[in-house]
Amino acid sequence: MNPSPLIARRYLFARKNISLISTLTSISIAGVTIGTALLIVVLSVFNGFFDLIKNMLLAYDPDIRIEASFGRDMHLSENQLDFLHSHPSILVISPFAEGRALISHRGDTYKVAIVRGVDQQTFPDMVSLEVDFSGAPFDLGVHDRTPGMLMGRALMGQLGLQKGDEVALLSAQSIQRSLTQFSGPRLFNFDLRGVYMMDEMYDGSVIFVDKRAAQRLFNMRTAISGVDIKLTNHELAESVKQELITFFGDEFNVRSWYDLQKPLYDVMNLEKWGAFVILMIIVIVAALNIVGSLTMVVIQKTRDIALLLSIGFRQRDIRNIFLRQGVYIGIIGCGIGGAIGLVLCWLQDTFGFVKLAGAEAFIIDAYPVAVSAFDVTLVLIGSLFLCLAASLYPAIRASSVTISDALRYE
Predict the structure, then answer these.
(1) Strands in 119-261 per DSSP E
(2) Beta bridge partners of 114
(3) Whether residues 256 and 271 fall in one domain
(4) What's the mean pLDDT in 375-398?
(5) Is residue 280 domain-shared with residue 350, that is, in the same domain?
(6) Count: domains in the chain
(7) Which residues span the domain enclosing 161?
(8) For 10, 125, 304, 330, which has the most beta carbons within 10 A of its beta carbon?
(9) Are 175 and 307 contained in the same domain?
(10) Per-residue pLDDT tens for 277-334?
(11) 98 near 213, Cβ under 8 Å?
């Protein structure tokens, strides 16, 4: 039987003659507990905000978007289309034609907006927009020789438009063609048939029309600007993206939902792991207390160490005794801190005790929480490693004690 664990627990938890050692040990455990709990709570809050923003963006952004690497227009061959349709992870394929156009109503020129021509059959399955249509649920087809248009409520309010108004669009291609043919630019009329709502992070300047109408507007003939893809699970985006890159080659640019909003997602991840590094300082301070408390234990137990050496303990056994004390402190602190952190996350997620300032202007009223098993594991392992590292110096010092030095002054 190895007596090292028993001796380590006795040194750590037995009543000590020097009260300062007990105080430092308690401070160490408290520091690890607080640091672990804070790390789990803060990282979970960052995860909650990340998931919230991601879900808001994925209501409009596709899981994967394929565009031409060079030029504006692209064509997909039958073989490429068959590959997309036969892929087991691809749920919806929606081609689109996109460009910028000048909005005009009753002779007044307003502003430049992004016009996206979409496939009426697949587009409703691709996005999750709150849409208000006059008549059919989603109808951008031609009625009375005029195609339909779907405009954002914010943009419609800025321009003073109402549903049913006739709006003209003027593209840069029309202007360029008029200059070369010495004729007036051609205006394309659309019926403002529907209104959609988008989250405030979008400016709502995207106008949706039928794909064929957009192709005529931008003089694209049968070309498209790209293809939006919805997967069975958006978490598969990176693996499917690599498959598509391998299949399509350099001729096409394949981007995942993360790539489409990469600056925003990168900033959020940077903030999260920056907070992780800063809060780990609390655990590091607790680990420094472990160095002090265990070093004082070594000084107090020098005679005991010499006695253990005299009855056959090796230096490695002495070192393991003090390493185990650091591990025990880490296990206690991480266990209690982890439990407290998880309970606080559950309470916030269930009851939303901590409210957001100015929540009346946001879509949620309390801080969102999303616990990640990877983050919890990383916090617990990191804290435990720091406790073990902090006990290394006292353990080495204890193992360097010799019998003659310990008993010299006895």
Answers:
(1) 130-133, 148-152, 166-171, 188-197, 206-210, 226-231, 252-256
(2) 100, 206
(3) no
(4) 92
(5) yes
(6) 2
(7) 64-260
(8) 330
(9) no
(10) 999 998 898 888 888 888 888 887 788 878 887 787 888 888 888 888 888 889 999 9
(11) no
